[in-house]
Amino acid sequence: MSDVPLRSRFRLGVRLGGARARHVVLAIRVIAGGGIAIFALSTPGFTSPLSINSLLNAISFIGCVAVGMTFITITGNIMSLALGATVSASALVFLASLSLGVFPAFLVAILFGVVITAVQGALVGYIRANPLLVSIAALSLLIGGAAIATGGQRIYPGGEGLQVFKGRVAGIPVEALYFFGTVIIGQFVLSWTRIGREMIMVGSNLRAAIAAGVNTARAITVAYVLAGACSAVSGVLLAARYGSGDMELGTGYDYTAIAAVLVGGTAIGGGSGSVVRTLVGVTVIAIIATVLLLRGFSQQWQYLITGLIVLAVIMLHTIGERR
Amino acid sequence: MPILAVQGVTKRFGPNEVLKNVSVALDAQEIRAICGENGAGKSTLVKIITGVHSADAGVVSVDGQPIEVRDPQHAQELGIALVAQELSLAPALSVLDNIWLGNREVPLFHRRKEFRDRARAALEKVGLGDLPLETPVSQLSIGRRQLVELARMLTRNARVFILDEPTATLSDVEIERIFSALRALKAEGKTVIYITHRLGEVFQICDSVTVLRNGELVGTRRTDEIDRAHLMEMMLGRSLGEMYPRWESKPGEPMLVVKNLAVPPVVQNFDLTAQRGMVICLAGQVGSGAIEVLRALAGLVHDATGDVSVAGQAMPLRSVAAAQAAKVQFISEDRAGEGVFLRLRVGENLVAPRLADHSRFGVLARRGLRASAAKLAEAVGVDRARLRSQADELSGGNQQKLAFGRSLGGDQPGVLLMNEPTRGVDVGARAEIYRLIRQFCDRGYCLVMASSDIEEVLGTSDIIVSMYRGRQIATYRRGEADVQRVLADITHPVAAA
Hints:
The structure holds two protein chains of two kinds.
Chain A: H1 18-41, H2 49-74, H3 83-96, H4 102-127, H5 131-150, E1 168-169, E2 172-173, H6 174-192, H7 194-204, H8 206-211, H9 216-242, H10 253-264, H11 275-294, H12 299-321
Antiparallel strand pairs in A: 1-2
Helix pairs in contact in A: 1-11, 1-12, 2-6, 2-9, 2-10, 2-11, 3-4, 3-5, 3-9, 4-5, 4-9, 6-7, 6-9, 7-9, 10-11, 10-12, 11-12
Chain B: E1 4-13, E2 16-26, E3 30-35, H1 42-49, E4 57-62, E5 65-67, H2 72-77, E6 80-83, H3 95-100, H4 113-125, H5 142-155, E7 160-164, H6 172-187, E8 191-195, H7 199-205, E9 208-213, E10 216-222, H8 228-236, E11 254-263, E12 267-275, E13 279-283, H9 290-297, E14 305-310, E15 313-314, H10 320-325, E16 328-331, H11 335-339, H12 346-350, E17 359-360, E18 363-364, H13 366-380, H14 396-408, E19 415-419, H15 427-442, E20 446-451, H16 454-460, E21 463-468, E22 471-477, H17 483-491
Parallel strand pairs in B: 3-8, 3-9, 6-7, 7-8, 13-20, 13-21, 16-19, 19-20
Antiparallel strand pairs in B: 1-2, 1-4, 4-5, 9-10, 11-12, 11-14, 14-15, 17-18, 21-22
Helix pairs in contact in B: 4-5, 5-6, 13-14, 14-15
């Protein structure tokens, strides 16, 4: 029988082995990171104190929400569309209760954020409601509720002493310190506590977690509670910075937060990821936004480019996951 | 002249050579088994024959003509039909529609008499002559769906049928149906390639067997020339000793007592007393309720009722936490979906139910967890170097060992419930699982297993309870039962219990 040369064919799509795919993804990350760094450092004014300062601020406000979002994503509940509204609403609550004193007002705002998301978490965890639909309902309730409560007016605080939440310590913006604190606590919960490990198990495989005896509803509820607390921290920081608040304050934060979570490399399906990764994701997105701003691109361009980055990241992940 | 032959086929994926210079020739009227452990290259070989992959070297020939199989479509045109594990039927459509679905010779209106007749003829050949053509596929059992799939391939003039582990999820009755369909195909002059993990089936249905190991051809033998032990030796490259361990039954005190268990809608009035140091097997096919009983005892069935006690203490049903508190552990029949966290690390899997024991005030003692994982890995024979690997990098057998390891934690032996413990596990690892089961016995565990593999039931159990449609048919002590009696019980029981 004669030897017939078998045609080696080009196939559409990427076919990579698991380990190799991971290396490729890692390489792309390193190259992308390097590219962004060069892009940033070559931008005039990027390293100026003013720009670094505003970068840190941007990272802090969004970052707290993104840390909160990480918990929701990691438990396999994709994202919440209501976290931006939770930021705004807890800012309003903080400002409205400032007459009690700054610290009590802070606690009231956190408690408010926690209650709002705990209810959502319980719905998702205990009766398996669809997380996206629950968050859409919560968004609507928050916006409506806030409009009725405030009569649609901006709120200006009556109290004093907002310095605790703004200004600088040792040259670092206070906001950034609160954010880094949130990251450290968040990462600690995720990798050093039982409930954190249970969240990862629930996100990795819900049925297996049930069979392993994990209290899955509790794990999901706690993830939402943490998301609410983190969002409220962001709300308080924003309220303190601007000295006033309305429901526009946190608009779009949920979208940027999920973008940061994904760019950081937390799996959209849940079960793997970390808060530190989200920190990286937030930083990358904020650097790109700052650079675009410094180079004179409009807000619209920033949205467009953030959108492209998220798309690219999702494609990268899909290739990396493929076996 | 062989109908289908591959000669000197080699295939690489990156640096891995998954097939090395493999040659196989198939004749008409032949049922050929292809055997080998996981990773031996069976699937890759099939994918080359069906045009999914192209070989890096070597020739595929049909009717003696060297041919380049371009893609699965082309393979079908050549008369090579793959009956896939994941069925490609559309559940909402009728049997008739499915048979003609995607067939290019069919006109728009395929319900005409000619096409109905041809579909009917094909169904008769696979033993489904009495099946109404309008039945929606969703109403058929998995076994019948496979038969419909075979009929569909017949209408496309397939000459070579490739079945990839067709019986993995089937009951014995359905397996028998598939077998008679395959015998009918053979009588028609067709060729069948039959990939299986179950060695019993090789001798039951196949004329010859080709064994692959690590991508290399070990050899092809007629099934009447060799025996089981020989076949296993070919697959493993060494002699296995025996598949099933030898042991002495050492009944301990009663551990698990079940009275009046009901698992709607299948099981009613189920009673069982299980002792320490014994393996009790509920033998039954899909639908017998054996699997459901163990799921209910594990706390996973929300409407189960009954009186259950473990070591004299009443155990509430319908709660996994309550079952675990009573030291009842469960190994699922659905390893990927429920048994193992595929995307977590091996170590994290092993300690998954033990987090409470290794944490104070909710904070994990990570060093303790690592030590515990290492100990469990050693106990069940998983390489400690793999503790940090992701669980989905392990073979099916090693994943199953993780499930056993998870159940082993804790200081006191309890009850271990196992549903189909060796499903999808290859021969070598299977023997290790059986040894593990005996080790759990020796440690004083009380084991209850549900299985539809009669050989396994007979080879591992101290007590066998046969089940049929939710009823307990008979109870045998070790040595009292044989294949025929258990098979009769679980397929068409004579004496109603």
